[in-house]
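batch_manifest entry 22 of 60
target: Erythromycin esterase family protein
source organism: Hymenobacter saemangeumensis
requested by: lab member K.T.
priority: normal
notes from requester: please return tokens only, no post-processing; we will run our own comparison against the previous entry in this batch. if the run fails, retry once and flag.
--- input ---
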Amino acid sequence: MATTLPTHPLRTPADLDRLMDAIGDARVVLLGEASHGTHEYYTWRTAISKRLIQEKGFHFIAVEGDWPDCFDVNAAIKQDEVQYGSAARLLQTFNRWPTWMWGNWEIAALVDWLHGHNRRQPLEQRVGFYGLDVYSLWESLQAVLRYAEQQGDGAMSAARKAFHCFEPYSDDPQEYARAIAFVSESCQDEVTAMLKTLRQQAQERQPANLSEHEQLFAAEQNALVAVNAERYYRAMLKGGGASWNVRDRHMMETLTRLLGLHGPDSKAIIWEHNTHIGDARYTDMRRDDMVNVGQLTREQLGRENVFSVGFGSYQGSVIAGREWGAPFETMTVPTARRNSWENQLHSQLNGDNALLLSEELRQQSGLKDSIGHRAIGVVYRPEFEQFGNYVPSIIPERYDAFLFIDKTRALHPLGTEAQANTPPDLYPWGE
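--- output ---
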């Protein structure tokens, strides 16, 4: 790996000009991260997102977060005046472990910027903020029930049946998964009927305004979350990549729905971990028949309409937990493993940051084979990193561009107290 790679300096947002040119007219831009707790990944994604919104007219940001919590943020940033007190207070809605992923000061700064940007735009042009994930089973069921009761229509009966079906499991989806492992009965029919009812009503109803239209969309989306979350927890019983695929297919379905909501010319910015946005076909995930959003967007929208940006670093610090559900800690990220992608970049750049474009990297014959590429999840144990945390990847095919930050700092959490129940840890990188 002695090949000298083509790189471009990365110091300020002005250095993103080459990236903006490479993105061109892409409809969906996927912005990754090599961990869920690194300051620079969030701030550089923010810098890219601002330019995409201001210069290329992107319509919304969709993140690896729960739909109900993110929709609260979406509603708040579209108001004319600040009605949420402060961004930090608003982000306390993210109280499911790992709370720091979206409850942090870096996102608070983005929220303030989005609100300031939006208040200068007409309502129909205001930028949205949405969650793509599937974990919020109980919260989404409650949201559908509240919506149906407000409407006082036929959806109320279906929502109550679905809600009551899950009640014996004390709002713990893992308890539900354990229970159906031993019986044939599940809540699949109830949540499917609820979604069907809401979709029928959506076709019949004519929303009076844009806000009402989005509320109707949100209710249907919460029903879809319930359907796919139920599938996700049943898939846990099968092991392997089954539940991962349910989750990423749900995120892709949500993205497709959001693009439809915003119209045929809509453009989306996606914030997710590299393991979701970097095309799975160019990693060892393919061996286990696992798909991800990066692969699905290219397949369904066309590769020319999708641009994915990976991130990585050589060393630094990170926010993570030592086990699933544990309190977050600031941890040291050791220097990257020998012969890894990050180690090669550090050796060449002598500690500088850089932007790399895959169109240029593909000219390098040495990059047609897989190379270890670091992935840190919400669960991390630095002392064991040399034995894991690296995803074999064909970098120029997995991503369309790569941002390398030689030394990174830990994210700045708000310190929101996590609620008791958390989604299960199924994957070695703690994703």
